[in-house]
Prior knowledge:
By secondary structure, the chain is of the alpha+beta class. It contains 8 helices and 4 strands; from the N terminus they run αααααβαβαββα. Among the domains are: 2-63, no CATH class; 112-197, no CATH class.
Amino acid sequence: MKFETKIKARKLREKGLSYKEILEEINISKSTLSIWLREIELTPDQKKRLTNKMDRVRYEVAKRKVAQRIERTKYIIKEAKTEAKTFLKNPMFLTGISLYWAEGAKNPKESVRFSNSDEAMVRLIMKWFRGVCGVPEEKFRVHVHIHNLHSRKNVCAFWSKVTGIPLKQFYKTYIKSTSLGQRKNVLYNGTCSIVVNDRKLFRKIMGWKLGLQEYFGVSPL
Length: 221
């Protein structure tokens, strides 16, 4: 019986069928099938057929994933828009979403990012991220940007103290060169960017922002 199954599998392969197509015809493991068929060479036309078939499958899978992502995004934003109106009496929510609306990233990569050089503003947005957004501590990342004129060794330690985020969660500092003859400001600590790689949170924040715009009647025309 096993010998007959092997013969059938080899004949199907010689016709140019894929492993998946053959497994739909006979009931054996894929590993066994691989051993049985490893010596069979497909013709160029057969290889082209399987390649085209795989490309079509990949295209359909990719298209389905995009559609699912769009639907998930719409759902999260719709829920967040409704939720925003229940938070209107929460001063921390209103302050934080307003700050993010003004200074936060709205990028297509859907990464949450807030950048500023004002120490107090960064402290405040961190309270918002922790208290309102519920960001876990391990998800925070920090990227410091500073001109070489103001660069110094302890600048990351300064922002670590401000944010409460350990230095191990800091990216490499970006030091920007400048040819301008500016007077050095010893109190300047560069720009601190708080990064949270969380698409769901990004979509929720966008929904909160849209809910706020809708409530105050300032939605885009």
